[in-house]
Amino acid sequence: MPAEGAGSMAGLGRRLAAVIVDWLLCQLIAVGLLHADLRAGSPGSFLPLGVFALENLLLVGSLGSTLGHRLLGLRVVQVRPGAFPVQVLVRTALLCLFVPALIVDGDGRGLHDRAAGTAIVRG
């Protein structure tokens, strides 16, 4: 991967901003459209996470980026050959657990991307 510009590894700030945008949009969808009850312990409290998972599966699987990624000029790419839909499923499942995304390697990739064989790069 290039050190700078298009195709280079995305920085932590952009990746964090993108996931915050995605999470806020999923919260709005869950509450505004699906009328989720977000009180602790209520069945609807996990609905935003479900919307977040669905957004990642559908948009990353088909377009290579979520809405947050698009807004910040990022995309998800394969760094290891494999079936991209399976890689997106692994990446999404680990991302929804949250902790794997906090653990990064020397390249700045989260554990969820490393396990899936993907990386977030600048568009």
Instruction: State the helix count.
Output: 6
Shape: globular
Largest sheet: 2 strands, antiparallel
Question: What structural class do you assign from the helix and strand content?
Answer: mainly alpha
**What is the number of beta strands?**
2
Number of domains: 1
The secondary-structure element order is HHHEHHHE
Backbone CA Rg: 15 Å
Describe the structure.
Helices cover 54% and strands 8% of the residues. It has helices at 12-33, 47-63, 67-71, 84-96, 99-102, 111-116; strands at residues 74-78, 118-122. The protein has one domain (12-122). With 123 residues, it is mainly alpha-helical. The protein has a two-stranded antiparallel sheet with strand order 1-2.
Gist?
The protein is mostly helical and 123 residues long. Helices cover 54% and strands 8% of the residues. It has 6 helices and 2 strands, in the order H-H-H-E-H-H-H-E.
Which features characterize this protein?
8% strand, mainly alpha, 123 residues
Task: Please give the structural blueprint.
Layout: H1 12-33, H2 47-63, H3 67-71, E1 74-78, H4 84-96, H5 99-102, H6 111-116, E2 118-122
Antiparallel strand pairs: 1-2
Helix pairs in contact: 1-2, 2-4
